[in-house]
Amino acid sequence: MSTTTSTVADPSTGSADTTRKRGARRDSRSRSTRRVDPVYYLFLFPALAIFTLAITLPAVLGFAYSFTNSIGFGDWEFIGLRNYVAMFRDQGIVSAYLFTLGFALVTVVVVNVLAFILALGLTSRIRLQAALRTVFVLPMVISGIIIAFVFKFLFSTTLPSIGSALGIESLSSSILADESLAWIAIVVVTAWSTIPSTMLIYIAGLVTIPDEVYEAASIDGAGPAKRLWNITLPLVSGFIVINTILGFKNYLNAYDIVVGLTDGGPGTATRTVAMSIFKGFTGGDYGYQMANAFVFFLISIVIAVIQLSITRGKASFGA
Amino acid sequence: MSPSSPPRSPLSRRGLLAAGGLLAAAGLAGCGGNGGSGGSSGSVIFYQSKREAIQYFDDLLGTFRKEHQDISVVHDIATNLSASFVRKNPPDIACQNYNLEMARFMERGALSDLADMPEAVLIRDDVQELVNWYPGYEGRTSVIPFSVAGAAVIYNRRIFEEQHLEIPTTWDEFTEVCEKLQKADITPIYGTFGDPWTVSQGLFDYTIGGMMDVRGFFQRVNELGEDVGPDSDTSFQKDMLKPIERMLVLKKYHQDDAASRFYGDGNTAMGNGEAAMLLQGPWALAEIEKAGSTEDLSCFPLPVTDDPADLKIRVNIDLSLWIPEGADRKDEARELLSFLMTPEVMDPYNKALLAMGTTKDAPPAKDPRIAPMQKYYDDAAFYQGASQFIPTTIPFTNYLQSILFGADPKTILAKVDNDFASLAYRS
């Protein structure tokens, strides 16, 4: 997405972008010297207060509990770093991390590629464009757990019976019951339910590219592939960055679809980190899973920082 | 409109300030509320969430209200129990399944002593003893068992009769029955391995309970704690390997697609007479009945040894009564407890939900579907499911599923030892 060694892409877009940014900065500086109406703070205060009370405070408390043997209620005592030490010895936790990271990576790629292709199709001059856009966005309005239950039935009953009717050996048993294949089902269902929102962001990006740019490129003799690679992709790179970062964050937190489809099974093959953390609440392993949640939080931040630093300054939001 | 411009709009700045302040106050007040089961403070909160029994208890409370006009009772079916204890706002009385999770409340002294209640003496000693399988609070009767669910192998009497099969009482007889059924092209056992809990409840608990001293084993590993492992005198990998290998022998008597079948599928199949046996508890019988099945079902304990004297059934404390130490209305709660412990309440419950009575003079189960278990229940030939004593933070049911799907039992059991020791290390 950052290959900019091209003949068609205008090298001035980058510099124009930076001048615009500089101008914006000057603007904000001059504005900050003016007195800010306290009403703005009052508007923000309720949300900030609720956020602090409902998110920040519990998170800090949770972090403190990660050094205890608390089971969620009743007496507890500080046990130092024991929870953290135990975490690294826990094969279940380590494999949950590996599965979650792998799943997030694969799903981000699959979702973004398919969503981009769909967005390209739905922004071209096709018939029934509005109707088709509606159809493709439909999965977005169904809740994850319901999608998961419907697909669970399809994977464990419908697909195998089709497979055995057609005599296809590999399809005639449920992939949800296969430890080495169940993850594919989860990727498919997650993709099915999250492609629409990703696609919408791509559509929003694609419509910002003016037709003139494509016309100019055609006159210069650029074919469809070249236009896609050298105009479309660089100009929507900002949207690609947004979609990857948001997507990765969502897939790292995968929970509802996995619970509905496999509940972490077969065996522990598809157990995600979020599921382990949640099981700690019901299983009385509160302190330990708080430690897990904190480590997971750190890892998520590191990943986000890496993603941002790779793409910083290279993203473009339309022409 | 730009809010920083002079106030031309009908909304004055003072008005906005006031609105903002009100919103903030409302937000804060919303956080400070104490919500939860203590909402209607004038009433006794009765917590009971076993889905199949909600209607039954709802009707009962109607009767109770008529008899005790001075006490108002609210039926709570949805509060999260752990959370209510954390908030120091537990229900006044509960009638709930008793298991390791519930034992945590008892162990930390959150439940009041009921030993002085006349109802406490009515309970059969061996049934009251089931509570003590779990960690408890020294010297207290914190929990009174209300009903016990007995579980064994559910079988189709019509199929057994048609195939001229006797009820097996030893391991060899059992496998022989399975072989004969397979020869007659009948699925011997219907498996629902897609739902891991059905594997631990049935196959696992029945084989372990039939071969091992469940209580002794868990007492010992809990004593060992951190030291449980390949070198300890008792461990999962040492003691459970044989029963699990036996359990795996039974796998071949299940239908081919057992791996992708779920709890509901098993009930449907049994209801339609598609399989001869199902390893499930009485709750499945109730579901099959609801589906309108006319199949003639009954049950027998799974034989896992060569000695018919070893036959035992699996039991669990289906419902138990307890009153938290932090209850606001203990006296009224005790009155409700006494009402619930009358035969007029308990006996119809057990009859309707296919459970077993817990009192010394409870009538025996007459329903043909569960009646064969009564003999074992009376003789205390029972065990509580081994899977119930492994903390849920260890994904044991999922491990079991892996074993069924082909993982090496030795490796997995070593993993359980490791998880168990690690849990002891950090608690």
Write the layout of secondary structure elements.
The complex is a heterodimer of chains A (319) and B (427).
Chain A: H1 12-32, H2 38-65, H3 82-89, H4 91-123, H5 129-137, H6 144-165, H7 182-206, H8 211-219, H9 224-235, H10 237-252, H11 256-261, H12 273-282, H13 286-311
Helix pairs in contact in A: 3-13, 4-7, 4-10, 6-7, 7-10, 10-13, 12-13
Chain B: H1 13-32, E1 44-47, H2 54-67, E2 73-76, H3 81-86, E3 93-96, H4 100-107, H5 125-131, E4 144-156, H6 157-162, H7 171-183, E5 187-189, H8 196-211, H9 214-224, H10 236-239, H11 241-249, H12 263-271, E6 275-280, H13 282-290, E7 297-300, E8 313-322, H14 330-340, H15 343-353, H16 374-378, E9 382-384, H17 396-404, H18 409-426
Parallel strand pairs in B: 1-2, 1-3, 5-6, 8-9
Antiparallel strand pairs in B: 3-8, 4-6, 4-7, 4-8
Helix pairs in contact in B: 8-11, 8-17, 12-13, 17-18
Give a description of the structure:
The complex is a heterodimer of chains A (319) and B (427). Chain A is an all-alpha fold. Chain A has a domain of 183 residues: MetI-like (MetI-like fold, Orthogonal Bundle). Helix content of chain A is 71%, strand content 0%. Chain A contains 13 helices and no strands. In chain A, helix 10 runs antiparallel to helix 13. Chain B has 427 residues and is of the alpha/beta class. In chain B, strands 1, 2, 3, 4, 5, 6, 7, 8 and 9 form a 9-stranded mixed sheet that branches. In chain B, helix 2 links the parallel strand 1 and strand 2. Chain B starts with 12 loop residues before the first helix and ends with a helix. The N terminus of chain B is likely disordered. The interface between A and B is large, with 56 and 49 residues.
